[in-house]
């Protein structure tokens, strides 16, 4: 596979024949799989530092941080990790599955296990 990058964006992705170097395989049938693989490569590289996977960087990408305000308070007002109530103006980390925790609690939890403590949804996986 050959990837051509331009300013951090894959501009061309194509399969090249292994048995006949230089020969391109049928572009139409391989275009979509090539681009998905290219997107995966960029996603993985975005989570790396100095060529190695960075868990803190991956966690940062997996959590949406917000400040709890009075209007946003609802029935889900307890962090299931530490069992403490959310307070106004606290930093809250919301995962893709919509479960909310104190920012510090969920960062610490995700460093040990890359899944939601409530529903076990897995993070840091590329969704094809």
Helix content, binned percent: 25-40%
Report the span from N to C terminus: 18 Å
Q: Mean of residue pLDDT?
A: 78
CATH topology of the largest domain: Herpes Virus-1
Please list the strands of the largest sheet in the order they lie side by side.
5-6-7
The number of domains is 2
The backbone outline, from C-alpha atoms, is elongated
Q: Spans of 5+ residues with little confidence (pLDDT < 50)?
A: none
Topology order in helix (H) and strand (E) letters: EEHEEHEEEH
CATH class of the largest domain: Alpha Beta
Output the radius of gyration. Answer: 20 Å
Instruction: Say how many strands there are.
Output: 7
Q: Strand count, sense and closure of the main sheet? A: 3 strands, antiparallel
Strand content is 15-25%
CATH 2nd-level architecture of the largest domain:
2-Layer Sandwich
Count of helices? 3
Structural class: alpha+beta
User: Which homologous superfamily in CATH is the superfamily of the largest domain?
Assistant: Zinc/RING finger domain, C3HC4 (zinc finger)
